[in-house]
Each structure stands twice: as structure tokens, then as C-alpha cells.
Amino acid sequence: MNPIVRVTGVSKEFLSGRDGSRVQALDGIDLSIGRGEFVAVVGPSGCGKSTLLSLIAGFAAPSAGTIEFDSRPVTGPGPERGVMFQEYALFPWRTVEGNVEFGPYARGVDAATRRARARSLIELVGLSGFEKRFPHELSGGMRQRCALARMLANEPALWLMDEPLAAVDLQTRIILQDELLRLWGDGHAAAAGGTGKVNRPTVLFVTHGIDEAVLLADRVLVLARRPGRIKEVVTIDLPRPRAAQRNTPAMARLIEHVWSLIRDEAVQAISEESG
User: Fold this and answer.
1) Nearest-CA neighbor of 159 among 120, 185, 192?
2) Domains of the chain
């Protein structure tokens, strides 16, 4: 089966806003993501995690190499690739319902259809009763639920998630992790007696949380520090549903392995930033 995302020989350079010098964020990235796969990306600060996601989203173009989605070159953003950020990115002048409706509205979907879709998603993410609230009236966790519903409104085949749970407290983060797995379809394969992956969305999830990456993902992509290169791809061979795997010895071993790949470079990155 052809991968839904194919990244071949991708490098990315930026011009430094400080002195105009060239900064290489990524170097020679080769990556394939299968349909219905959940892939997490971790690495030390400044390794190019968010840059890689931005390139796949089509917000920027690689300096070298190619990126394909569903066997077609990525030349810009598209509704089939939904993006969710750490900062919520909600429109403050729109209600919960208005934010969730925005994507279909921008695509010209009729009012009745987009409203029905928004109401269904608002219920799905547990925000029923808050349809007319504005973002400033919501807690951080509720804002992220709204942002998730807004991303889902376009029914994207690929979820591109850039540290979407980093801004919430630990308890809310755990709850939202479980909700994210539920919405993605974690555990459905076991019930169906098959892989179930083709019917799931595909997810690329950037995070600083190694425990979060191991809990959620089928594979964890570990990037080396700048210029970002793939250091190792770790297969997470834990059974699903994953919520039951929290704090198990098998999960702890995988977390320790991923951390061992990052530890020294993370310390060096922090030292350079503080210097």
C-alpha cells in the first residue's frame, strides 16, 4: 500500500533574523507515513520538529527534496490536511459554534450542512451547552477541544498536531490524551478483529513529551539537534487501547529508550540557549 505521506530528501534553510546568516533547520529527511498511522515526533529544542510539520502542511516549501500527500506534491495548504496548534488559534470574535463552522464556511458549504456538522462535533468533543460561548469564556482544555472540533470540521485525512496539549495543566492533558485517542479510533481495530488503520485518520503529532509520544503513537520519530536529522524511528509495540498501558513496565522501558536517544543533545541545546 502506498504511504499517504512521503517525505524524500527534505532539507530546509532559513535566513536568521538576527544577522542574515543561513540556518539549516532540517537536513536529508526521508519519511513515509502509512494510512491510519499515528506518528509522533520528538527531539531536543530547535531540532526542526515544527518545521517538518509546517512543510507537510504546505505553509512553507522545502529548500531541497520533495513532499507528497496521497501521491500528489504538496504545494500549499489544503483542507485534507488539518492543523492544530499549541496556541489554540481560535478566532476570539467567533463563538464555539462559529469557530467550528469556519472551515466549511470558507469552503462554501451551505449553512444548514455546516451547522449540523458543527453541532455534531461540538457534542463529540464534549462541549455541548457551550455553543454560544466565546473563547475567553472557556478554560484552556475547553479551548483545545474547540480547536480540535474546528480541525475535524473539514474531515481531514491527515491530522497535523503541533504540541496541541502543551499549554494545559497535567490533569487536563491526560484527559485530552484519552479523548484524542478515542476520536482517532484507538481500540477499534481489536473490536473489529483487524488492523482498522485504513478507516482511521493519519496523525503526525509533534510533542516535547516523551511519555505522551510513547502513549499515543505507533512509531516515534526521534530527531537529532539542528540541523534536524532522523536519529531513530522507534516502533511502539504496545497493545491498544493505549490508555490501559499508562505506567506499565513496558511503557516505562520505551520511554527510557527514547529519552536515552535525546538526553545528551537536549542538555547541550539547553546549555547553548542559556549561554
Assistant:
1) 185
2) 5-80+159-170+202-274 (3.40.50.300)
Task: Report pLDDT digits (tens) over 167-206.
Answer: 788 888 898 899 899 889 997 654 333 445 557 999 999 9
Phi/psi of residue 19, nearest 5 degrees: -135, 5
> Rounded CA gap, 231 and 48, in Å?
13
Length of the chain: 275
Q: What are the cell numbers at 139?
A: 478554560
Q: Buried (b) or exposed (e) across 251-260, using 16+ Cβ within 10 A?
A: beebbeebee
Torsion of CA 266, 260, 158, 149, to 10 degrees: -70
Provide φ and ψ at 22, rounded to 5°: -85, 130
Express as a percent the part of the chain with pLDDT over 70.
92
